[in-house]
Amino acid sequence: MNLANKLTMLRIFLVPIFLIFMAVQDIPYGREVATIIFIVASLTDKLDGYIARSRNQITNFGKFMDPLADKLLVTAALVSLVELQIVASWVAMIIIAREFAVSGLRTIAASEGKVIAASWWGKIKTVIQIVAIITALLNLSYVHPILNVLTDIFMAAAVIITIISGVDYFVKNKDSIRIDK
Length: 181
Hints:
This protein is mainly alpha-helical. It has one domain: CDP-alcohol phosphotransferase transmembrane (TM) domain (Four Helix Bundle (Hemerythrin (Met), subunit A)), CATH 1.20.120. Helices cover 79% and strands 0% of the residues. It has six helices and no strands. It has helices spanning 3-23, 30-54, 60-83, 89-111, 120-141, 145-172. Helix 1 (3-23) packs antiparallel against helix 2, helix 2 runs antiparallel to helix 5 (120-141) and helix 3 runs antiparallel to helix 4. It is globular and about 50 Å long. The N and C termini lie far apart (35 Å). The relative contact order is 0.12. Its EC number is 2.7.8.5. It comes from Clostridium tagluense.
């Protein structure tokens, strides 16, 4: 369990704490704290990848758990934002469905001894989703017309990039899902 993998596990640990601050309305500044937790958790994604590459400590555990930690964090935030009527449910469903589909693809590949690492499109997708979610979270505490517009723009971009990255994973890894195997 190297430092990069510990940061990935920290991100997973922060998800329920984020959810508590999002769900419990009686906590003073709860949404602001949730936003900070989300930002910190998101930064660990960049940091763990940098540490793993710079120290040549890339592991199969990290290749599997890092994207899973991202999915948990993004899914928790999207479900919370749907509940609060900040994000449309269809937006969340498209993003979450893609995450399940790519996770399924990774599972099939893993059963064949292959590890599908994050692609360039997948990394861009994660960044756009995180920016969209942070904008939406800020919109909870500091409602402003500009934040409304930015939330809509970033969420639309997140949906588009999410679809493109999902198609990219399946096209590049089509050998893992051949039906005649």
